[in-house]
Fold these 3 entries.
Entry 1:
Amino acid sequence: MIKVGINGYGTIGKRVAEAVTLQDDMKIVGIVKTKPTYEMRGAIDANYPVFASTKNKIPFFESKGIEVSGVTEDLVNLADIIIDCTPGKLGVNNMEMYEKAGTKAIWQGGEKHEPIGTSFNSLTNYSESIGKDYVRVVSCNTTGLSRTLYPLLNEYGINNVQAVMVRRSGDPKDSDRGPINSIEPVLNVPSHHGPDVQTVISDLNIQTMAVKVPTTIMHVHCIIVELESEPDVSRVIELWDNTPRVDLIEGFLHNEGNKIRNLPGTAEIMEWARDSLYTRGDLNQIAVWKDGVHSFGNKLYYYQAIHQESDVVPENIDAIRAMCNIESDSFKSVEKTNKALGIN
Amino acid sequence: MIKVGINGYGTIGKRVAEAVTLQDDMKIVGIVKTKPTYEMRGAIDANYPVFASTKNKIPFFESKGIEVSGVTEDLVNLADIIIDCTPGKLGVNNMEMYEKAGTKAIWQGGEKHEPIGTSFNSLTNYSESIGKDYVRVVSCNTTGLSRTLYPLLNEYGINNVQAVMVRRSGDPKDSDRGPINSIEPVLNVPSHHGPDVQTVISDLNIQTMAVKVPTTIMHVHCIIVELESEPDVSRVIELWDNTPRVDLIEGFLHNEGNKIRNLPGTAEIMEWARDSLYTRGDLNQIAVWKDGVHSFGNKLYYYQAIHQESDVVPENIDAIRAMCNIESDSFKSVEKTNKALGIN
Amino acid sequence: MIKVGINGYGTIGKRVAEAVTLQDDMKIVGIVKTKPTYEMRGAIDANYPVFASTKNKIPFFESKGIEVSGVTEDLVNLADIIIDCTPGKLGVNNMEMYEKAGTKAIWQGGEKHEPIGTSFNSLTNYSESIGKDYVRVVSCNTTGLSRTLYPLLNEYGINNVQAVMVRRSGDPKDSDRGPINSIEPVLNVPSHHGPDVQTVISDLNIQTMAVKVPTTIMHVHCIIVELESEPDVSRVIELWDNTPRVDLIEGFLHNEGNKIRNLPGTAEIMEWARDSLYTRGDLNQIAVWKDGVHSFGNKLYYYQAIHQESDVVPENIDAIRAMCNIESDSFKSVEKTNKALGIN
Amino acid sequence: MIKVGINGYGTIGKRVAEAVTLQDDMKIVGIVKTKPTYEMRGAIDANYPVFASTKNKIPFFESKGIEVSGVTEDLVNLADIIIDCTPGKLGVNNMEMYEKAGTKAIWQGGEKHEPIGTSFNSLTNYSESIGKDYVRVVSCNTTGLSRTLYPLLNEYGINNVQAVMVRRSGDPKDSDRGPINSIEPVLNVPSHHGPDVQTVISDLNIQTMAVKVPTTIMHVHCIIVELESEPDVSRVIELWDNTPRVDLIEGFLHNEGNKIRNLPGTAEIMEWARDSLYTRGDLNQIAVWKDGVHSFGNKLYYYQAIHQESDVVPENIDAIRAMCNIESDSFKSVEKTNKALGIN
C-alpha cells in the first residue's frame, strides 16, 4: 500500500484523495490545509488525518473542532509520495522539503515543466515517469488535447495542429473571479497550451490560441488538425471510441425531420455527468461531439469539452503507480484506475 | 411495496425516482419520457421500465436502442401512485387519466392549489394528506419558506412576514433561458410565493416580492419576520438546528482578527454540498446563514438559500407515505426518509 | 466660474467632469489620474489638463504621449473645489491636503459620513451643505432610496421602510470582479444603506438587507413602506411623476389581451436609456416600474432600478452650487442642472 | 436627397436611421415597427414618421399616443430605398413588395446571399453594388473578417484562413436569450461565416468554427492566416492602421517592469467606446489587439473584437450610395460616411 499525502486540499487535491481511497494499492495518510473552511467537509467525512500548513494555524483548526495530526513536514515524512496541489507556481518551492525527506512528489499543471523535468500523461508517455521521484501531471487542457490528438498521431501522422481554447474563467466555487460580462483573449501566442502538449508528445507541431469567457463549468476546444493523410470521419470516431477516457457525445438528435437539442453545450454535458451518479457530478473523460467532427482533405475539425476540475484525477493515480514502480504497463494502470473510478 | 410511476423524467422526476429507490416501502415501476435525450441516462443505469409519452414516440426511443414498456396510460394502470412532474401548469390536465385508472397522484409546485385541493409540506400539514388521492407538493421556494417560518410560528407567533425571493433564472441545464445580464422584478405583488405558503400554513400573514437574476444554482430569500414577542437570536438558531431539513451555515470564519470567506454565497454552498458526496451534489436541506440572523425588537431578519432542484424531493417521499396510509406520524416519515437519503 | 478639479478620473469622476463642462457657472481646471490607461480618452478629447497622482508617475504618462500639468497638489491649489472620486474609503485621507490648500471638497458615497460630517442629497437636505467646505454626496443606492421615499414622507408620513437591495456585482468595465454564477447576501443587517439614508433624511425609520448578484448594469430595489395613512397608488405615481430625477416606466404593455414585454428588466432599461442618445447611455434618473407599485392597507410595495454609474452625477453638480454659495434654492439648482444635462 | 425607409426598427434599424440622419445626401422618410414598445423612443425624439407593420396594429400605436403615418406598403411607396432590418431569414419575403413598388432594398446579414444575389462590404466589393436594386450587407462577423483580411490579401496573398468566432449569445437588450452558464459550439463546420466572407471576397480560402458564450457585448475572433509570404508584424499593424474602420488597441501597458491592464477584454473596449462619447457607446470599427498579433513563418495570428450592434451601420450607408449611384468611388463614400459618423 503506497502511502499518499495530499498537500493542498482544494479542487484537485480533494478529488485525488477520493480517487486514491478507491484504489487497492494506495491509501491516504493525510491532507494539508491552510484554513479550516467548508472544504474540510470531505476530509472529515472520510476520516483523513488533517495536517495544518504551519504550526501557527493549528489553534484555528482546533477552534473549529478539528483534530490536527501535525504540520506539512510531518505528513511529508510520513508519506511515500506527496500530491502537491498547492496554488499554481508556488508548489515547486516545496521541492526542497520533499527532497530532504526523501519523499516522491507529483505536481499539477499550474507548475512549469522545467524545474520538475518530467511531465506526465497516462496515454502518451507513461513510461517516462517509471521510478521517477518528481513528476508533473499536465494541466486539464493539455490532458484533453493529448488524449484526442495521440490516437490521430498514431493512425494518420500529424502535420500540424491549430487549436483555440475557449476557457471557463473560474471553477464553480471561485466566486471572487470575473468577468461577469466580457471575453478576454490570451494575447500571448502561442498560449502556453501548445508548448505544454509538447512536454508529453514531443515533436508535435501545435500552435494554440485562447480566450477566457464568463462561465464556470467546462473549457471547450476548437481543434483543426492537418493530418499526413486524408482521414475518414467514421474511422476517427472509432479511434476515439477505443481510446480510454474519451467519451463521444451527440449534440443533437434527429427524429421525423426535427432537430432535437441533446447535449448542445457544456451545461447539458455537466447535467449528463451528474445523471451518471458518478462522484461529485464529475466527468473524468474528455467529451467529443460526434456531430462536430468534420474533414476537408487532410484537415480534421472537431470540438471537445474539458471538465477542468476532474479530468487529471485519474492521471494522478496512474502517475503514482508509475513513479512507485507498482505497474510498468500503462494500459494496465489505466484499466485498473478506470475500473476503480467507475469510468466507462 | 407501493408501486410508484414517474410521469415526466426531468429535474424533479429523476430525483424523486432515485429517492424512491432508496426507500424500503416503495419502488419505481416505470418512468414516462417524451424524448430519448441524454436525460435517459439515469433511467437506463437504474433499469427503470421506460414508457413513451405517446404511441407515436415509441419508434424514436427504439431508434436509440431503448426498450419501451408501453405508453403513459399503461404506467398509470400499473402504478399505485403517479408522481406527475410534467411541465408546470400542464400536469393538472392529466387528472382525468389518473381518475379513470383509479391511481393516486402527486403534482409539483408549478401547478395551482385549487384544482388539486390539497397542498403538502412534511413539517406543517402532513396530516391533511393522509389517505388523499390527489396532492400537490408545494414549490421549492414555498417549501423553503415553510421550513424556517413554521418553528418561529410555533415558538413566538408571527404578526407578519415580508420576504423577497432572489430567484435563479433557470436550472443549470436550462441553457436556453436568459437573461445573461439583467435583473427582472416580478411586478405582481404579492408574488405567488406568499399566498402559496398559506396553502400549507393557513392564517400566516405573509407578503412576498421577487426578482429574477442571472444565475442557475440556488434561490436566496431575504426574510423579515415580525414576531409576537421579542426573539433571541441564539434561541432562533437552536430552533432551526432542531428542525429537520434545515442546515445552519457560516458565511465567514474569524481568526486572529481576520474575516475569512467560508460559505459567503450560493457558489460555495453548492461546492460544500458536492463535498458531502451526496447524490448529484444536491442539497435537500434549506441553508440558513447563522451569521445573517439578526433581530431588532420583535423583528427578525435572516437569509436562506434554496436548492431549487432538490429541496422538494424528500417531501414527495413523505407525501407518498401519507397518501398511501403507510405512515400517519409525520415525524416518523420524515425521519425514515431522511435516513434513507442520508440527510443529516 | 467655479474652478472644479477631479481627483480620480474613473466611473464617477469622468461623468462629473463631463457634467461640469455642460454647466455655465463652473468649469474643469484639471483631472488627476494614477495611470495613463484607456480611460484617459475622454479627458484628452475634452482637453482637460491632466495631473499625475504623484511625481514618479509623470514619465509613464509622457511615454504615452500625454502632457502632464502637474501633480495632485498642484490641481488642489488651482481649484476652488475638488471632487474626490478616489477609490472608496481612501478618499478621506486626502482631507488634510485639501485643508492645507484651503480648497473645498466633495467625496462620494464610498466614504463614511462621520469624518466628513455633512451628507448631501439635492432633494432632501440641500440647504445643510450651503457654504460648507466638506460634503459627501451619498451613494447611488442611498440617492435612489432618498428620491422616491422623500415624496412619500412628505405626503403620507412613514412609519417604517423595509428594503432589499439587489446589487450588481461590478460596473460594466470591472472585468476582474465576480461572481460569475452565485448570489451573495450582505450578512450584516441592516446593510449600510439604511443608516446611510438617515444621513440625508434624519429620523426615517428604515432597515435594509442586500444581496450581490452576477450582473453589471443596474441595482434593483424591492421596497416595502408602511405609511402613516393609506396610500392611493395613482396618487403615489403622480407624486413621483412630479419628483425630479425619477422616471416612471412600464414593464409590460397590454394589447388585445396580450401581455407584451416592454421594460421588464434592467437590460431593457439600459437600452431605453441608450435610445435617448443621452451621453454614454447613462440614466441619471431613478426608474420606477409603474406596474410594480401596489398597496395593501397602509403598506406600499414598489420596485426601482438604479444606474449605479450615473445617478449621483447631478447631485455632485448641485452640491458644488450649494457649497460655493452660487445658489441657495435647491429647486433652482436642480432645474438648472437637469436642463444642462438634458434630464426630462 | 435619397429618401430612406427603415423596415424593422430594432438593433440595426434604429442605428442605420440615426446614421442616415447624419448624412447630407439622404434622409429618413419613415420607419416601420410592429409594436409601440420602448424602442420607439429614438424615433419619437427624432420625429421620424412612424408606420405600423400592418393595419390592425394601428390602434395599439394610437393607444400609446403615437401618430401613425400608414403601414409598411405606404412607406415602401414613399421611399427610394428600404433598409430591411426585419428579423433574420424573414426579410427576403418582402422582396416581392419592394419589387411591386419599384423600390430598392438593402437586407442585413441574417439573410442568405442567394435570393438577393449581391453581398456588400465597403472595402472589398463596393463596385459590385453600383446601381443594383437589391443588396445584402453582410453580417457583423463577416464584415469584421473582411476588414482585416482584405489588406493582408492585397499585401501578402493568402493561402488559407482558419478562424474561430467566439460569439456573444445575444445583444444587451435580448434578456430572453441564454445561456447563463454554458459554452455551445456551432457543430456544423465550416460555420456559415467562412462561406459568407467568400460572398464579398471571392476565392478566399477560409474555414471557420464558432462557439456561443454567455456574454452580450462583443464577439471575439481568433484568426490564423497562412500568407503567401512571410509577414512582418509591424508592417501588418501599419497596414491595419491605414485601413478604414479598423482600430488598433493595446491590451496591456508596461511601466517599470509592471504589466498593467488597459483593454484586456471586451468589457473595457466597450467602456472605451463609451468614453469617446460616440452615439450610444457604439464602436463601428473593428478593434484589433496590437499586442495580440504574432507571426511564425508565413502564419499570422491575431485577435479582434466586433461590436455586433454597430459595425455594419456605416456599410449600410455606403451601400445606399452605391446602389443609388450617388458615389462610384468606394473610398470617397467611406470617407464621407466616416466623417459624418465621427469615425476616426
Entry 2:
Amino acid sequence: MTAPTGTALIALDWGTSNLRASRLGEGGQVLETRAAAGGVMAVPERRFEAALMALAGDWIEAHRCPLIASGMIGSRQGWREAPYAECPAGLAQVAAQLVRVELAAGATLHIVPGLSCIGPDGQDDVMRGEETQLWGAALLPGTCCVLPGTHAKWAWLGEGGAVRAFQTYLTGELYAVLTQHSILGRLMQPGQARPEAFAKGVELGLVEHANATHVIFAARTAGLMGRIEPEGLPDFLSGLLIGIEIGSATRHAAPASVVVLGDEALCARYETALDVAGIGHRRARDDATTRGQWLVAQAAGLVDGGGRLST
Amino acid sequence: MTAPTGTALIALDWGTSNLRASRLGEGGQVLETRAAAGGVMAVPERRFEAALMALAGDWIEAHRCPLIASGMIGSRQGWREAPYAECPAGLAQVAAQLVRVELAAGATLHIVPGLSCIGPDGQDDVMRGEETQLWGAALLPGTCCVLPGTHAKWAWLGEGGAVRAFQTYLTGELYAVLTQHSILGRLMQPGQARPEAFAKGVELGLVEHANATHVIFAARTAGLMGRIEPEGLPDFLSGLLIGIEIGSATRHAAPASVVVLGDEALCARYETALDVAGIGHRRARDDATTRGQWLVAQAAGLVDGGGRLST
C-alpha cells in the first residue's frame, strides 16, 4: 500500500494560550504542523477567524478539506459554544454533536464538544480537548489515564473506549498561584532541579492527601527550619501537590497501572511521583491529539471511514 | 477592693500588618488601646523602634513599665528573632525564653517566642502570637480550639493549659489567591453575602476534604453550569475551603465541641460551618490576647504575680 499524499483534514488543537494546526493525510498521518500563540485568551476581540486564516489560510484555500477543532475554542469564551456531551461518552456521541462554523473561505470548521461528568459527590466536572486525546490514545476499557497540566485530569475508560468518568485537579494552577502570590513562595529561590526535594514532597503529599490545605504549609516550615534549602522548595511544593493529587485520585482504589498523557517534562514528573507511590505507568503515544481528531472526523463521516489509520 | 489605676504593662500585639498597643493596669485590665498599620511587613527598613515610639512613646516615657510583645515581631523578619518553644509548651517555658530588647527610652521590651510542633507526619508547624491568645483564653486540658485567619490554626490543649499540638491551614490565604489570581475567580461577581452558597460549599468540603485539590474546581463548574449564581461563588469557595479545613482537622476524631477564637466576622463564618458539621462550639473571650500577654508577663515576674486578674 502506497502512502496517500492528499490533505484530508485540517486539525486544530485550540486551547487557552495556543493554537496548533496540523494537516492530516488521507490515512490520518500528520503531514505538517504549525503553531501560534493564538489561544482563546490570546486572540483580541474574539477575532478567531482572522487568527485561523493567519496561521493556516493557505492550507484552507489550497486543500478545500474539512477542519476539525478540539479544546477551549468550543467554550463560552471561544468561537462558538459546543455544549458538553455527558459521560459516559464515546466517539459516536461526540461525532453527532459537532458544532459547525462556516468560514468565509468556503470551508467548514467542526468544533468537538467537551465532556461533562457528575462525580460521586454530585458535582459537575468538565473537560475540553482532553476527551479527544483520550480517544486518540486508544485506551482499553478499565484504563485509568492521567493528563498532567494546569488543570490535571484523571480519566477512567469504559466500554468501547468511552470516557466513563473523570476528575479535574487544580495542581498546576495551585503551584503557580502559591509560588507567585502566597507566603509559600517567599523563601523560595530559583535553581537547578532538586529531585530529592521533589521526592520528599511526593511522599508527604501521598500520606497527607486528606489534609491538603494543612500539609502545603510544610513548603514554608521546611524552609524556615532549614530542612530543605531555598532552591529545593519549588520542587518540594511541586512534589507535595502532585503527591496530594495521586493520593486523592487513587484513594478508593489504587490502579495497578496508569497511562500518562501529555507534555514530556510534566509526564516525567508524574512518572517519578507514581514510582514513589508504587503505581505502575506507561506513556501514551505522542500523537494522541491528532489521532483523536482524526477518529472523531471519521466517526462523523468527514473523512473516509474505510481509510486505515497509519500507526 | 478598689481598682488599681497605675499602668503595670504595655502589651504589644505585633503582627504582619498591624501593631496594636494596650496599656494594662495593675490588675491586668486594659486601660487604653491604640493601633497603627505598623506590622512587621509594613515598617520600612525594619525601623521597629521608631514605629513603636510613634505609637506609644508617650506611654513609655510616662509609665516606666515593662513592655511585652507577641506575634510576628519575634520572627526572623521582625525586630529580634525569638526562637520557637517546642510543644507541648505552657506559660512557664515561654516565660523563661522571652527575648529582651533594651529601648533607647530606657524601658525593656520582652518578645514572646512562638511555638513549634512536629506533626504525626514528621513535619514542622509553627505559630507566633496565637500561643499567647490560647493561654489568655484559659482553656481546659483536652480543649480543641480553632483560630480562623489567613493561616488558620487548630490547637489541642494539654495539662496545665499547655499547647499540646497544633496544625496550620492555609484557608484564608488560599481563598485570597484563588479568588484574585486563579481561574476560580473568573466567574465570580461581588455582591451581598450568600449564606446558602456558603452552606453548600461547607457541605461539599466536609464530604470531599480528602479530595481537596479536585473539589475546589467545583467553584468553577458550579458557575459554569449555572448551579450557583456569580454573586454566590465567593461564598461557595469560602465554604468549600472552611469545610475542607474542618473535615481534615477532625478526620481522625471529631471533637464534641471546639472553642472559636478571633475576629468576629470570621468566627461567625466558622461557627456556621461547625453547625453544618454537627460540631458544637463556643466563642473564646474577646480579651484573650491582652489577657495572655498579662499571664506571660506574670509568669516571667515582670508584673505582680499576686495581683488577681480582673475578669
Entry 3:
Amino acid sequence: MKKIKMGMIGGGIGAFIGDAHRRASRICNDFELVGGVFDVDYEKSKLFAKNEEIAPERCYKSVDELIKTESAMPAGEKMEVIAIVTPNALHFPFAKSLLNAGFHLVCEKPMTMTVEEAEELELLVAKKNLTFSLTHTYTGYPMIRQMRDIIAKGVLGTIQRIDAQYYQGWINSIIHGTESRITGIWRLDPEHAGASSCMGDIGVHAFNLIEYTTGLEIKEVLSDLSSVKEDIKLDLDGTVLLRFSKYLKGVIRASQVCGGEENCITLSVYGSKASLKWGQENPNYLYLLSDSEPTKIYKPAHGYNDQLAEAGHTMPAGHPEGIYEALANIYKGTAKSIRGEKFTPGEFPTVHDGVRGMKFIHSVVKSNKEGNVWVKV
Amino acid sequence: MKKIKMGMIGGGIGAFIGDAHRRASRICNDFELVGGVFDVDYEKSKLFAKNEEIAPERCYKSVDELIKTESAMPAGEKMEVIAIVTPNALHFPFAKSLLNAGFHLVCEKPMTMTVEEAEELELLVAKKNLTFSLTHTYTGYPMIRQMRDIIAKGVLGTIQRIDAQYYQGWINSIIHGTESRITGIWRLDPEHAGASSCMGDIGVHAFNLIEYTTGLEIKEVLSDLSSVKEDIKLDLDGTVLLRFSKYLKGVIRASQVCGGEENCITLSVYGSKASLKWGQENPNYLYLLSDSEPTKIYKPAHGYNDQLAEAGHTMPAGHPEGIYEALANIYKGTAKSIRGEKFTPGEFPTVHDGVRGMKFIHSVVKSNKEGNVWVKV
Amino acid sequence: MKKIKMGMIGGGIGAFIGDAHRRASRICNDFELVGGVFDVDYEKSKLFAKNEEIAPERCYKSVDELIKTESAMPAGEKMEVIAIVTPNALHFPFAKSLLNAGFHLVCEKPMTMTVEEAEELELLVAKKNLTFSLTHTYTGYPMIRQMRDIIAKGVLGTIQRIDAQYYQGWINSIIHGTESRITGIWRLDPEHAGASSCMGDIGVHAFNLIEYTTGLEIKEVLSDLSSVKEDIKLDLDGTVLLRFSKYLKGVIRASQVCGGEENCITLSVYGSKASLKWGQENPNYLYLLSDSEPTKIYKPAHGYNDQLAEAGHTMPAGHPEGIYEALANIYKGTAKSIRGEKFTPGEFPTVHDGVRGMKFIHSVVKSNKEGNVWVKV
Amino acid sequence: MKKIKMGMIGGGIGAFIGDAHRRASRICNDFELVGGVFDVDYEKSKLFAKNEEIAPERCYKSVDELIKTESAMPAGEKMEVIAIVTPNALHFPFAKSLLNAGFHLVCEKPMTMTVEEAEELELLVAKKNLTFSLTHTYTGYPMIRQMRDIIAKGVLGTIQRIDAQYYQGWINSIIHGTESRITGIWRLDPEHAGASSCMGDIGVHAFNLIEYTTGLEIKEVLSDLSSVKEDIKLDLDGTVLLRFSKYLKGVIRASQVCGGEENCITLSVYGSKASLKWGQENPNYLYLLSDSEPTKIYKPAHGYNDQLAEAGHTMPAGHPEGIYEALANIYKGTAKSIRGEKFTPGEFPTVHDGVRGMKFIHSVVKSNKEGNVWVKV
C-alpha cells in the first residue's frame, strides 16, 4: 500500500520523543517521513534532514513556509499528516495553523496549554473533518486494549473503585543537584511546561488510561500537590481523589520524585464481580481477579483476546513487544483513519481525549490552589 | 526457660483470631495457655477448654471471676498475661479491668472504640508499669523490621513521599448477597465495629506500618470514604491524604470491596536518595530502589540484615515463613518485656500505637463527615 | 482432644531441624513433647530438657534406656510416637529399635543409608502396623497438594514432560573457604551423609515431589554428578535424566553450589492439555498453563481447592503461611493416622516414600559411577 | 547517513520471520529494502513488492537472476546485503551463491543443514571478507549483553554450573490434532527442517546464549530426546547434559510440547562468587545473586550498564523494549560491520556461531541415536 507522506515539527537531533515517533511510524510501515521543521535552528534542522536522507528542499525554515510550500504541491506528493513533537507550549499554535491548512495531525501530549485552546482545536478538527491523533502512547498496548474490551463486556460487574499510579524518580537528580538535564529545565518552567509538571506530564496519562479503559468520565477531583522543595514552582508530586458518581470513587497518584522508580504506571479497576490489574513495566500481563476463581493472566497473541488487542501484537506469544510497538499501534490506527479505512474507536486517542486531559490538569491545579477542594472536571 | 502463664478472653471454638494468637504463642514457645473466658456462652467455653486440655477450674464464667480467682493464686502459678481477642467493643472494658488488676496484656486491634478510651489505657499502662502488646501483626515481619532499620540509618535521604495500600475484596460476597458470614455482620454494625469498617479494620494497619517503619508522625489527614451501597452504614472503601510536614505528603488507600484482592498491603517509602517497597503477600522480599544502582532485594536469613530482622526468621534462607511467624515474633518481644529482659523498641506494638491508631480512625471519619477537609490527627 | 505424647531423638541445643519439628508439632497442636534423647552428650541433653520444661526423668541417656523405661509406662502416659532428627547414619538403627518396641515414628529424610535398610523398615512397619511418617516437608504445602489433586483429576491430559529443580548455594562458603559450618562438615563426609550429598540431601526432595504430585513412578535414571572441586568426595551438583515410559521423560537438576540461590525448588509438569508450575520460595502460587486459555493462579484458602489443600491453610486468603505450616500439616496427618482417624493418602509421606527415595539416590550414584548410563530405580 | 541497500530472499506475504526482519531493519534505520525474491511463486512475490512499494524490476524470479542483475548495477545503487529468511534447507545454497557474488548476508538460523555446509560458509566468508550476520535474535537483548559483560569482568568467580531452558508448547495443537498450521508441517519434516525439530529450532538458541554470554565452549554433550508420539520423526523434546571442563557441567532443556509455555527461555550461570539469571519473557530484568549480598536487578537505560548493553535500549528507563528492538540491535551491529565502522564483538552473531550451532545440533542428535552417550561437539 502507498505510504502516507508525513512531515514533522520538532524532533531534530537529540530529541528523544521525535525519534520515538519516527521509529513507531517505521514499525507500523504506513508512513514515510518526507520533510518538516526539525529544529528552531535551521542549520541543525538541515543537518538532521541530511542524516535522514530527507530531500533538502523539504526541510523548511518555519511551519508557515512548510504550510505554504506543501499546500501548493499536488496530491499524492504533498504531506498529508504532520507530527507535532515540539515542547508543550508550541503544540497549540502549530496545530491550529496546520489544521486550518488541511493537514491531518499526530500531536504529542499535553495537547495545549489551556482548556480553551484544547476546545478550539476540537471544534476545528470537527469543522475540517481531519484526523487528529494524540499520542497517549500507553493506550496502544495490547493488554490495555484488552482491558477496555473486558470492561466493555461487563465482566467486572459494577465498578466500585479505580486506582491509577504513575511514579517516576528522574527529577530527583535535577532538584537535588546531582545532574542537570536540559529536558529537566523546561519541564520545571511554567512558561514552557504549562500549569503543572507532574500532573501535566504524567498524571494526565493515568487519567487518560482510566477513561480509556473504563469508558467512564471523571466528574470531580480533589487534589493535594507538592513542589517538594521551596524553590520549585510546579508540582512534582501529588494525589488526586476522583469521583465518578456517588458510589464510585477512585484515586490517581503521581510523582516525579519517587527515587528509583522508572516509569511505574499501574492501573486497577475493581468491580463487584471481578477486577483487572495492569502495570506498564510488564505490559504484556493483564490480571483478572475474582473472589471465587483463580486469578487469570491474559497475554498478547492468544485467541482469547479481543480483535483489536490481538492485532496489536504481531509476534507469536511469549515474544515481548514494548513501548515502540504500542506507539506503532497508534500510528496504525491513525493511518487507517487518514486513509478512510474502517477502524475501531480506541485505535488512537483523539482531540477529545486532549480536551479531557486539559480539563483534568486544570481542575487538579485549581483544586490544589484553592485549598484541596472538589472541582468539576 | 519457664513459660509465661497466659489467659485468654474470647477466642473460643470457631474464632479465627484467637486460634491465630494461640498458634503464634506456641511457635514462640514462651507462653502456656492455662485458662480464660473463651466464650460468652459458658458451656461452649468449657467445651473449648476441654478440647485444649485446659484445667476446667481455670475456664471462668466471666472476666471478673477470672481476675478474682487468678489474683488470689501464688506467683508462678497465676496468669501473668491475658490475651484479649474479643469483638472490638469489649477490648476497652476488659483491658481496663485487667490492667487495674495487674495483668500484662496482649490486645487485638483496634484497641478501643474511642480516642478517650485509648488515652485512658495509655495512662493506666504507664501508671501500672505493665506490658501492653497490641497485635499489629504485620510489624512482626522480618522485612518490615529491616525496612524500619534501613530508614532509621538514613539510607533513603529525605523522605519525599509515602504510599500505603490495604486492599481486600471479601466484603463483596456479603454486600452483594452471594454469601453471608457471621463475621461480616458484626463488622458492618457500628455498635460492634466502631466508627469505621474499612479504615478501622484495615486502613489503621496501613497507618501503623507507615509510622512504624518511618518513625514519622502523620499530622493531618483528609479523607474520602465510601459505603459503596445505599444501605451500608460504615465505610467499606476510602482514600486518605496524609501530611507529615510541608513538603512531605502521602496517601493511604484502603478498601474491602476490591473484588479478588486477598490481603494486598503494600508500603512504599520514597526518599531523595533511595526508596523502599514491600508487599504483604510476598512478605520476605524488600526492594531497595535507587536512581543510580540496580534495585536490591533484601530477604530474611542473611547477614546483611539488622539484628531484629534477622532474629525474626529462624529457618535458613529461602524457606518461607509467614504470618503466624510474624505474630510469633510479636509474642516473643512481649515475652521479653514481661520477663524484664532487654528488648528492642519495635519488637511489639504498644499502647501508644493503639492511641495513634484510634486518633487516625477518628480523624479520618471526621474528615469525611465534614466534607473532606483537613483534620489534625 | 488429648495430645499425643511424643519423644525426640536428637534435636538438642543448636539443632536446626529438631527445632523445626518441635515448632511444627506445636503449630499442629496434636502433640506434646514429653522426653527424649536430645544429644549424645547427656549433660547437654539435660540442659536442653530443662530449658524446655521437660521432666528430667524423661531425658534419657540412650535410645535403649528410653525404650525400656517408656515401654514400661502405662498407656496414656508413655510416649506413643518418636521423632528421629539425628544425623542421617543414625536414622536406621534407631528407627528399627523403636519400631520393634512398638513406637510410631516421625523420621527425617533420607530415611536410611542403604536401600536394604529402607526395605527392612518398610517390612517392619507393615508387620508392626505402625505409623511411619517421613518428613518430606514440601509435600505439606497446600499448593503441592492441590497440584496432586489437579493431576489426579486428569486436567493435564497426557503428561509429556516433567522438570524439577532444587538449587542451593550455601556450600560455596564452605568449599571456597569463606566459612566453615559444622553442619557442612558432616554433610560432606560419606560416613555420616551417605552415598551422596547433593542428591541425597536435596535431589531426593525433587524426586519425591515428582512422584507425590503425579502419582507416577520414575523407572530409570541417567545421571551426571560433579564434586565441583578435586578434594570433595561427594556430589555437590548434578543432573538426572528421568524415564517414566517410552514417551514420557524428564529431568531433575540439583546443586548446592549455585551461589546466591537459597532454596530454589521448582516443579513443572507438562501435559497435552495443560501444565502446572510451582516454586517453593513462593509456595502459595500454583500456575496452571494452557495453550488456549489465560494462565490461572491457584492460591490457598479458596473454595476452588481440593479439600486436603484447603485444610492445610488456616488463615484467610492472602495471609501467607510457610514452611513451618507445611511441616505442621504433615504432623497433622501423622496424628490422624496414630489416632486411627480417617486420613487422605498423601497427608504424610510414608516409609514407602523412604524406600523410593533411597532407590533413587543409589541409582543416581550408580549411574554416575558407571559412566552416565541408564540404571533402573 | 546513507541507508544500506538491502535485498531479501523469502519473507513474502504471510511470512512471519521475514516481516520481523523488515521491522527490525526499519527500527534500526540503517537499511532500505530495495528488492528480492520474496516467494517461490513469482506472482505472489510481485504482489508483495507492490504492497511494499518496491520497484517491480527489482522483484526477481530467482536468486540467480537477482545476483546477475544486481551485480551489474553501480555501487551505491546495487544491493549490498541480502537477508535470507527462507525455510531452513535453502539457507546454505543461497548463502553460498550470494557470498560468492560478493554480497554481505543476514541469515536466519539454523544456518545450514549440515556441519560441513556450515564450515564451508565459514571459509567462504573469511575468504571473501564479507559480513555474515546470523540472527540469533536473543543476543540482541540489552540484558543479555550486560550478562556477557558482567561475566567477562569476572564478577562470578569460577563458573560452577550453567543451566539453560527453552520451553514452548505450540506443537501440542498440531500433534494432538486440535490445529494444523502450515508452519508446523515443514518443521516436522526432516527434509525441510533438518536433523532435528526441537534442538534445531530452539535448543540451539539456548546453546548459543550460553556460549555468547559466558565466552565458554561446550566440549561434549549427552542427550536424551523424545518424539513424544509414535508417528513423529523428529525430536520435539529433550534434555542435553553439557560438559565444559572436568568440574564445569551444565544442562540444556528444550521442548516444544510444554503446553501453555509460550517462549520460555531462561539462562542461569552460577559462579563461586555470584550468579546471573535471566528470562526472555521479561527480558529487561537481569538478576545478580550472591550468598552475602541482596540480589541485584539490572535493567536497561542505566549508567551502571556496559556501553553495548546501554546502547541497545533507546527509551528512558522503565519504557520496555522487546524482541523487535533486540533484532534491530543485531541489524545495527551488522550495519556497522558492513560500513567498516568500529563495532564490538558480540554486536551480531557471526558465521562462526552458525558453525557452532550446527555442531551442537548434530552432536545432540548423534548422542541420542547412539544411546545417550557422550559426543564431542
